[in-house]
C-alpha cells in the first residue's frame, strides 16, 4: 500500500522522484524518503516523518544530487511511523532499497541475519531484505544475481528496488505480489509502483509479471522470469491524463471525483451501448461463449467493490435468472468451498492489485471455474492480465482513498453485463433491453441533478457536527447502498456508522435508537416502499432522528424528528447508482465539518496490496 519511484538517468533525479511520490501519496503517507547516488558513487539519503511535503522541503534545502535514485512513501505495516522506519533502508554504507508489501518470514530471516552479525536499526520487515542482498553480494558476481538469490528466500508479497553505491548506474527490481511498472525514456529509464507517478517523464511502460526480476540502466532494461530466464514484456503506451493528480478548482480529490462522475459514466458506457441495446462484443473476446454457458456467478471483492457486488447480486438473479454469490475476498480464499458447474468468477477491484482479490482469482483457477472475468479500472494491472476477460470501468484515475466514481462505474459496468446475460438467457427481451439502455443513457444527466443537491446536503451535514454514531437503512438493492454510505461516512469523518437492512431493525438495532443516533434512510419509490415506511415509523416512535432521502412520489412529509430530502424521480434500474451520489456528498460535508483529512483518512491507504 506504499508508493515506489525510481530512476536511472544522466540528469539529477531527486525532484523527479519527489514529484512521483506526490502523485503516489494516496498509496501511503505516514513517512517518505529518497536516496540518490551521484557519479562519484556518493549516496545521499533523506527521510522524513509525515507527508511528502515534509520530504520535499528537506530535499529542497539539501544538496542532494545524482542520476540514480529511489524514493518511497510509506503506509506502516511493521513498525510505527517514524523516520527510522521510513524507506529507503540500507545495509552498511552501500546497499539501499525500498519495498512494498509484507515479508511473512521476516522474523526467521532477522534471527538468521543477527546470527551473521548484522545489526538492525528499524522495526520493519524491509530491513531484512537489505541485509540479505548485502550478504548475497559478497559471493554473487552482480547485484542482479544477489537480488535473485535474495528473492528466492523471501516469503510473502513484495515489490522491491535495490541499488548499490559502488555500481551507480543501475538498479535491480523484483516483483512478487506487489505491482511494479518500468517507464521507458530516451537515454533514461524509470520505475514505479503505479504509472501515474511517471506520466510527467514518459508514456511508455512495461508491467512486470509475477516473479520477475529486472536490471535497469539508462539504456537497457533486462527482465528475467521466476526461473531466471530472460523474457520480453510488452510495451504499452499510456493514455492516462497527466493532470489526473491535480485537484483543479476542487478543494479535495474526493470532491473532484464525486463531480467527475457524469463524465466517468459516459466514458464507461461509450461504445458499449447503442440506442437500444448492449453491444455484447464490447465486453471482450470470449464474452459470447461465457454468456451462453454461465449458470452461476461468484463475485469476489473487498470494501467498496464488495458493496458493488452486493447490488449486482439482485440484478443477476432478478434480471438474468442466474444464481449469484458475493463474498469478501479475504474470506473466500481461506475457506473450503464448492465450485458450482459452469460458474463464472467475477473479481471487482479499482486498482486491479488488491492482494486478497488477486489471491482469490489464482485460487479459483485451481478450483475448476468455467472462466474468470475482472471488472477493473486500471489497464495492465495484475487482475486484468491474469483474468480471461477484463471489462474495464474507465473511471479515470481515482486518488481519494474513499472510492466514489470507481463505485458508480463498477455498478454501470455490472448492469451492462447483467443486461447482456439476461438477453442471452431469454429473460430480457428487446423492449426490456431498450428500457434499460434508455435509463443508462439518462444516468449522467440524472447524476448531474443529484450533484445539484450539494448545498442543501452541506447544510444538512451541520446536524452531524456533534454526532459520534449513525445508522443507515435500506431495503432490497438499496441495502448495499446503505452499507456503502455507512462505509464512506466512517472512512472520512471517523463517525461510527452502521448499515442495516431496514427489516432487521426489530432484531436488535432498535436498541440503539435515541436522539443522538441519526438514522439516514434511502427510500426511493419502489415495491418495498410501504414496508420501509413501517420501519421508519418504528424509529420515529422511539424518538429517533431521521433523514430520509426519497423522491417526490414517495409521499413523505417532514415533521418533528424527520427531515425529508426530496430527490428527483429516476427509473428503478438506475436508482441505486443515483442514490449513491447524495450519500457521497453527505459523507464529504460531514468530514469537512469534523475537520478530518478527507483524501487521506487516518490508518487507510488507497491500494490494498497486502493482506
TrEMBL record:
The active site is at 2 (nucleophile), 606 (for fru-6p isomerization activity). Residues 2-219 form the Glutamine amidotransferase type-2 domain. Residues 279-427, 460-601 form the SIS domain. One of its GO terms (biological process) is fructose 6-phosphate metabolic process. Coiled coil: none annotated. It comes from the Bacteria. The keyword Nuclease does not apply. It is an enzyme of class 2 (transferase). Keywords: Aminotransferase, Cytoplasm, Glutamine amidotransferase, Repeat, Transferase. Its main location: cytoplasm. GO terms for cellular component: cytosol. It catalyses: D-fructose 6-phosphate + L-glutamine = D-glucosamine 6-phosphate + L-glutamate. Signal peptide: none annotated. Its EC number is 2.6.1.16. SUPFAM superfamilies: N-terminal nucleophile aminohydrolases (Ntn hydrolases) (SSF56235), SIS domain (SSF53697). It is found in: Cytoplasm. The keyword Transferase applies. GO terms for molecular function: carbohydrate derivative binding; glutamine-fructose-6-phosphate transaminase (isomerizing) activity. HAMAP family: GlmS. PANTHER family: GLUCOSAMINE--FRUCTOSE-6-PHOSPHATE AMINOTRANSFERASE, ISOMERIZING, GLUTAMINE--FRUCTOSE-6-PHOSPHATE TRANSAMINASE (ISOMERIZING). Catalyzes the first step in hexosamine metabolism, converting fructose-6P into glucosamine-6P using glutamine as a nitrogen source. Homodimer. This is Glutamine--fructose-6-phosphate aminotransferase [isomerizing]. It comes from Photobacterium chitinilyticum. The lineage of its organism: Bacteria, Pseudomonadati, Pseudomonadota, Gammaproteobacteria, Vibrionales.
Amino acid at each position: 500500500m506504499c508508493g515506489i519511484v525510481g530512476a536511472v538517468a544522466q540528469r539529477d533525479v531527486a525532484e523527479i522522484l519527489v514529484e512521483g511520490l506526490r502523485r503516489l501519496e494516496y498509496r501511503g503517507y505516514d513517512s517518505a524518503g529518497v536516496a540518490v547516488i551521484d557519479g562519484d558513487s556518493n549516496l545521499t539519503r533523506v527521510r522524513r516523518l509525515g507527508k511528502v511535503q515534509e520530504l520535499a522541503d528537506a530535499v529542497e534545502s539539501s544538496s542532494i544530487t545524482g542520476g540514480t535514485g529511489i524514493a518511497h512513501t510509506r503506509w506502516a505495516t511493521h513498525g510505527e511511523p517514524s523516520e527510522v522506519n521510513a524507506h529507503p533502508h540500507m545495509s552498511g554504507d552501500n546497499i539501499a532499497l525500498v519495498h512494498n508489501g509484507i515479508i511473512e518470514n521476516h522474523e526467521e530471516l532477522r534471527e538468521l541475519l543477527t546470527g551473521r552479525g548484522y545489526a538492525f536499526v528499524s522495526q520493519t520487515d524491509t530491513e531484512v531484505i537489505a541485509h540479505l542482498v548485502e550478504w548475497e553480494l559478497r559471493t554473487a558476481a552482480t547485484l542482479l544475481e544477489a537480488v535473485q538469490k535474495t528473492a528466492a528466500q523471501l516469503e510473502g508479497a513484495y515489490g522491491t528496488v535495490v541499488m548499490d553505491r559502488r555500481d551507480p548506474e543501475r538498479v535491480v527490481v523484483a516483483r512478487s505480489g506487489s505491482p511494479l511498472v518500468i517507464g521507458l525514456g530516451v537515454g533514461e529509464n524509470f520505475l514505479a509502483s503505479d504509472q501515474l507517478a511517471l506520466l510527467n517523464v514518459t508514456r511508455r511502460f512495461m508491467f512486470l509479471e509475477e516473479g520477475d526480476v529486472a536490471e535497469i540502466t539508462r539504456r537497457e532494461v533486462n527482465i528475467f522470469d521466476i526461473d531466471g530466464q530472460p523474457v520480453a514484456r510488452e510495451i504499452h503506451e499510456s493514455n492516462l491524463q497527466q493532470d489526473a493528480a491535480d485537484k483543479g478548482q476542487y478543494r479535495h480529490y474526493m470532491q473532484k471525483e464525486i463531480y467527475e462522475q457524469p463524465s466517468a459514466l459516459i466514458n464507461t458506457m461509450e461504445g458499449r451501448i447503442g440506442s437500444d441495446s448492449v453491444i455484447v462484443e464490447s465486453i471482450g473476446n470470449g464474452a459470447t461463449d461465457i454468456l451462453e454457458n454461465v449458470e452461476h456467478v461468484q463475485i469476489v471483492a473487498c470494501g467498496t467493490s464488495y458493496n458493488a457486488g452486493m447490488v449486482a447480486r439482485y440484478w443477476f438473479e432478478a434480471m438474468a435468472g442466474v444464481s449469484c454469490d458475493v463474498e469478501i475476498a479475504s474470506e473466500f480464499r481461506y475457506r473450503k468451498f464448492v465450485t458450482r458447474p459452469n460458474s463464472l468468477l467475477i473479481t471487482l477491484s479499482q486498482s486491479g492489485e488488491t492482494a486478497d482479490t488477486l489471491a482469490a482469482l489464482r485460487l479459483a483457477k485451481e478450483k475448476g471455474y468455467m472462466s474468470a472475468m475482472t471488472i477493473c479500472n486500471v489497464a495492465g494491472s495484475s487482475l486484468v492480465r491474469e483474468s480471461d476477460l477484463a471489462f474495464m470501468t474507465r473511471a479515470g484515475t481515482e486518488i481519494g482513498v474513499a472510492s466514489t466514481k470507481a463505485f458508480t462505474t463498477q455498478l454501470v459496468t455490472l448492469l451492462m453485463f447483467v443486461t447482456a446475460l439476461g438477453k442471452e438467457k431469454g429473460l430480457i427481451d428487446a423492449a426490456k433491453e431498450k428500457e434499460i439502455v434508455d435509463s443508462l443513457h439518462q444516468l449522467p444527466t440524472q447524476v448531474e441533478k443529484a450533484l445539484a443537491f450539494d448545498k442543501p446536503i452541506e447544510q444538512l451535514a451541520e446536524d452531524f457536527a456533534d454526532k459520534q454514531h449513525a445508522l443507515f437503512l435500506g431495503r432490497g438493492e438499496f441495502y448495499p447502498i446503505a452499507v456503502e454510505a455507512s462505509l464512506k461516512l466512517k472512512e472520512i469523518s471517523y463517525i461510527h456508522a452502521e448499515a442495516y437492512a431496514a427489516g432487521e431493525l426489530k432484531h436488535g438495532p432498535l436498541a440503539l435508537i435515541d436522539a443522538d443516533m441519526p438514522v439516514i434512510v434511502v427510500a426511493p419509490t419502489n415495491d418495498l416502499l410501504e414496508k420501509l415506511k413501517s420501519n421508519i415509523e418504528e424509529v420515529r416512535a422511539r424518538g429517533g432522528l431521521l433523514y430520509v432521502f426519497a423522491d417526490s412520489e414517495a409521499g413523505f412529509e417532514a415533521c418533528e424528528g424527520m427531515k425529508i430530502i426530496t430527490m428527483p424521480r429516476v427509473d428503478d434500474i438506475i436508482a441505486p447508482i443515483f442514490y449513491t451520489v447524495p450519500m457521497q456528498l453527505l459523507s464529504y460535508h460531514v468530514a469537512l465539518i469534523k475537520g478530518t483529512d478527507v483524501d487521506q483518512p487516518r490508518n487507510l491507504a488507497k491500494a490494498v496490496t497486502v493482506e
